[in-house]
C-alpha cells in the first residue's frame, strides 16, 4: 500500500466526507491523536496526545517544568469528574499489544490473578504511541518514571473496574497532522479512489479548541480543590497558560517522533461546518 503525504486538496476531500458536529454533552470525552480509530458515530471529537492518560502526563510535566506540586490522586479524581466518571476514560492500546498478551497467556503456566494484574499494569496503554514515546524519553517529556507508573497504575485499575481501553487495529497510515479549531470533529480514516485502486489513509488529529476549553476547566478545578498549589498570586489562568505551553511541547515531541516529514495543517471551522485550511509547513 502506498503511503500518502496528504495535499491540501486531498485534505479538503477528506474533511468534506468526514466532518461531524461536536455533541455538546460529550465534548469533554477524549480520544488520542492516533489515526487508526474507526470512523464510528460517537467517536469523541476531542483528540489529544494520549487522550486522558496523556492529559495526566501533561499536568505532571507542567508541574515539573514550572515547579509546583500536584496531588496525583486528587488530580486524577478531578479529571474523571470532568468526563463523567472513570468509565468514560479516553484511553487506548492496539491489537499488536493485545496479541502479545494473548500469546504470553498461552506460554505462562501459572497464569494467575497476580500475573494477570502485573501484566495489565505493564501493558496498559502500550499500543499508544504517545505514551510509549514518553516511556522511551522521559527527559524530553519532562516526566519522572514514578509519574508514568502512576498513570499506568490508575489506568489499569480503571480498566479492571470496567473502563474501556480501545484496541486500535491495523498499521499506522497517517499522512498528515491536522490541528482543529472550532466546534466540529473529523473522522481520521479515508479511502481515496486512485488509478491503481483504493488507498486507505489516516490523519493525526489534535483538537485545539476542545483541548483548550477542557484545560481551562481542569485548571480551575485543580486550584479550587487544592490538587495543585501555586505560588501566591498565581491563578487558574496562569495554570491554564502553563498547561497550554507544555501541551504544545508534548504534541510536537510526539509529532516529531511519529509524524516526521508529514504536512501540518490547521483547519478552522465556522458554525455551519464551513472551513478554512491553512498549511503550516512540515513536521
Ligand atoms: Zn495514542
Cα distance spanning the termini: 22 Å
Percent of residues in helices comes to 40-55%
Mean pLDDT across every amino acid position: 94
Report Rg: 19 Å
User: Quick one: overall form?
Assistant: globular
Task: Looking at this protein, list some descriptive labels.
283 residues; globular; alpha/beta; two-stranded antiparallel sheet; 46% helix; binds zinc ion; 13 strands; 22% strand; 10 helices
Short note summarizing the structure:
With 283 residues, the chain is an alpha/beta fold. Helix content is 46%, strand content 22%.
Overview of the structural elements:
With 283 residues, the chain is an alpha/beta fold. It has a domain at 8-85 and 168-282. It has ten helices and 13 strands. It has a five-stranded mixed β-sheet. A two-stranded antiparallel ribbon has the order 1-8. Strands 2-3 form a two-stranded parallel ribbon. A hairpin with a 5-residue loop joins strand 12 (263-269) and strand 13. The protein is globular. Residues 32, 34, 50, 92, 128-130 line the site of zinc ion.
What is the fold's blueprint, element by element?
Elements: H1 8-18, E1 19-21, E2 30-31, E3 46-47, H2 51-66, E4 69-70, H3 72-82, E5 91-94, H4 95-107, H5 113-123, H6 129-136, H7 138-141, H8 145-160, E6 165-168, E7 174-181, E8 184-186, E9 189-194, E10 197-207, H9 208-224, E11 228-229, H10 236-258, E12 263-269, E13 275-282
Parallel strand pairs: 2-3, 5-6, 7-10, 7-12
Antiparallel strand pairs: 1-8, 4-11, 9-10, 12-13
Bound molecules: zinc ion.
Amino acid at each position: 500500500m502506498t503511503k500518502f503525504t496528504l495535499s491540501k486538496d486531498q485534505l479538503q476531500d477528506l474533511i468534506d466526507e468526514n466532518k461531524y458536529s461536536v455533541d455538546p454533552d460529550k465534548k469533554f470525552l477524549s480520544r488520542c491523536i492516533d489515526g487508526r480509530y474507526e470512523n464510528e458515530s460517537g467517536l469523541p471529537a476531542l483528540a489529544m496526545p494520549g487522550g486522558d492518560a496523556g492529559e495526566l502526563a501533561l499536568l505532571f510535566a507542567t508541574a515539573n517544568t514550572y515547579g509546583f506540586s500536584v496531588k496525583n490522586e486528587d488530580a486524577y479524581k478531578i479529571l474523571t469528574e470532568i468526563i463523567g466518571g472513570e468509565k468514560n476514560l479516553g484511553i487506548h492500546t492496539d491489537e499488536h499489544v493485545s496479541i502479545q498478551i494473548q500469546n504470553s497467556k498461552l506460554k505462562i503456566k501459572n497464569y494467575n490473578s497476580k500475573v494477570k494484574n502485573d501484566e495489565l499494569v505493564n501493558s496498559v496503554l502500550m499500543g499508544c504511541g504517545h505514551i510509549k514515546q514518553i516511556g522511551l524519553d522521559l527527559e524530553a517529556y519532562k516526566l519522572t518514571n514514578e509519574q508514568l507508573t502512576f498513570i499506568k497504575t490508575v489506568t489499569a485499575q480503571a480498566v479492571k473496574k470496567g473502563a474501556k481501553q480501545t484496541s486500535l487495529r491495523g498499521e499506522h497510515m497517517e499522512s498528515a497532522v491536522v490541528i482543529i479549531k472550532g466546534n466540529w470533529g473529523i473522522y481520521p480514516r479515508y479511502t481515496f479512489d486512485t488509478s491503481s485502486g483504493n488507498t486507505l489513509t489516516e490523519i493525526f488529529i489534535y483538537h485545539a479548541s476542545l483541548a483548550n476549553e477542557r484545560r481551562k476547566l481542569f485548571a480551575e478545578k485543580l486550584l479550587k480543590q487544592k490538587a495543585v498549589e501555586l505560588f501566591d498570586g498565581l491563578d487558574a489562568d496562569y495554570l491554564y497558560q502553563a498547561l497550554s505551553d507544555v501541551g504544545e511541547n508534548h504534541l510536537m515531541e510526539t509529532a516529531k517522533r511519529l509524524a516526521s516529514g508529514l504536512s501540518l495543517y490547521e483547519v478552522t471551522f465556522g458554525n455551519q461546518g464551513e472551513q478554512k485550511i491553512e498549511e503550516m509547513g512540515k513536521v
